Amino acid sequence: MPPTNISPERFWKPLVIAAAVVFVYWGVLLRLGRFWWDDENYSHGLLIPFVIGYILWAERGRLASVAPRPRVLLGGGAVALALLTLWVGTAGSELFTQRTSLLLLLTGLVVYFHGWRLLRAVGVPLLLLALAIPIPTIIFNKVAFPLQLFASRCAVWAMRALDIPVLREGNVIELYPLGSTTTKKLEVVEACSGIRSLMTLVTLAVVFAYFTSPSDDGGKGGRRFERFRALRAVLVVLAAVPIAIITNAARVSGTGVLARYYGTEVADGFFHEFSGWVIYVVAFLLLFAFGWLLDRFNPTRRGGRGGGAAPAGEVESPLASAAAVPVGGEGTAGLQR
Prior knowledge:
With 337 residues, this protein is mainly alpha-helical. It has 2 domains: 9-131, no CATH class; 137-322, no CATH class. It is built from 12 helices and 3 strands, in the order H-H-H-H-H-H-H-H-E-E-E-H-H-H-H. Helix 1 (9-38) runs antiparallel to helix 5 (95-113), helix 4 packs antiparallel against helix 5 (95-113) and helix 7 (123-131) runs antiparallel to helix 9 (195-211). The termini are far apart.
């Protein structure tokens, strides 16, 4: 139960620290928000502050009950390193360095004032913030292009399986639409690589794993249950990667097959927009089904296997536990002619 005698210091100290962080990082936060708004690959970042705020508010009682065990040296060192990183990023005009320094600063402040236990408790919000930080362009391109090639290969494989004559050169697919006297080209552009749905689905998987974490109502699960919760959270997040890649490849394959019978116009306009949303819904349903399957092996479930989602109001932090337990739509962009 949260303490009833709350000193004014518990209010003004966090407010002063928050004001100082906002003052120092105002430019970084402003550019980050503008980037979320302008770049569709990271548009999910616009929702992250609200999700983090909801989690912190819902967990306020549990967070307030964590006994503070400050780690002054480690926390202070992390804060100093974060400020140095911010200075280096500003001097070199490196946005990724500036943004990651904010994550390091928040981690250092938590450790400095409260210690490792509170850091574990706020692990999920910090992880969500990390997932909302855009990765450097050079790394983004290194990931996106292989995904483009994979989607292209899958589309060609599906079309050849249906006896559709097709050629592929890199990420460009060449085919004969029915009724056409010339070949048409479909290019699997960066927006169709699947990296957008990959990043969004991984973020959604973190939120999903957090809010559907099974609870040990009887308190008899013990270490076995804690290991299960941690492993379930990790597996759900990891499963988002192949699910996003495979569903995007299926979407590109379907577009290629339809282009054979209805022309390359299906790669643009309403169909492409609509298929993106449908595939994203399918990806989430697959993620949900995978989580449900894992719950069948919940050690506290009646019958010896399986389990269910935690009831409302009893949400725990499975991803934070994973850090301590030693266990291992696509949106609207599309094919261009």
